[in-house]
Every structure is written in C-alpha cells, then in structure tokens.
Amino acid sequence: MPTKDQYLTARVEYETNPHCTYQSLAKELGVSHQAVNKRAKKEGWKKASKLPLQVAEEMSISKPTQGSKLGVRCPENIAKIINTYAVTGNKKLTAGIVGIDRDTLLRWATEEPELTAQMDSARKQHLVEQFMKISQSPDWKAAKEILSRSPETKDIWGEVESKGPTIVLNILRE
User: Fold this and answer.
1) Looking at CB atoms within 10 Å, which of 42, 125, 130, 173 has the fewest?
2) Per-domain residue ranges of the chain
C-alpha cells in the first residue's frame, strides 16, 4: 500500500507531466490503475494548464543538455517547478521533483525574478481554487484539509487550539 507521500509525489507527477497517465502511476506505485483513478477523483487531481510552460519558454533559460533533464534549468523543469509549488507550497519537495536541492531553487529564483512571481501566482491560484471548491462543492473536506495544512491559510483554516498556559502545582505533604 503506497504512503501519503508516495501518492503526493504521484499527484504532482500527474499534474505537472502532460504525458503521465494513471496506468504509469499505478505501475510505479504497485497498485491497480482503478485505485489511482479512484484516489485522483476523490482528491480532484487535474492536469495543470499550459500557462506555466508558456511562461517558462518566454523566460531567458539556457537550453538543456542532451540526456537527462534532471537538474537542468529548462522550460519543462521550470514548468514542473511552478506547478509543483502551486500544489504543494513546499520548496524542498518542489526542488526534488526536478533533481535539484532547495538552495539551487532559491538561487534560480533570485536570478530569475519572474520565476518567483510565477510560483507565487500559481500557488495563490491553487489556494483560491481550494476556497472555491469548499464554497461550491458538496465534497469540500479534501479542500479544507489542504487549506488547513497550507502555511498561507493555516491560521484561518487550521485547528484551533484554545489551551491556556500550563500550570504545574507541586504539593508537599508533611
């Protein structure tokens, strides 16, 4: 049985890779494609729009070298970075998807301010979609869970802890 992290990685791959299918994810996860399909419908997986790839192609990005594109700053990886960050809000996980570390992602974002702007814009759009899902859908629980864990909306949608200060009483008997 795949873990939550494995399903999260599968979701990111599905939403950011236009060639990814439920069958290929099922093979990677070791489950049936029906199980992946059921999970995708339950959580509302959808292919990302073409906008981030178009934006990435317009940015001044060096061409990838032959062979693997992991770790290379190319339009496909920039699009994956934008889409992955939109879904997860986690820069470390986002960097790992394209084979770089968090510091490299931060350096790329510093060198290309458009990348930071696109990542933030995509993240905000994703959060707005979650708000809309809650307001319009009878299946709002998954969207609420996402909003309660997101750093940007955790204070609004997260669990309320109304615990007061801890008081310790030491009682001595004679």
Assistant:
1) 173
2) 1-47, 48-157
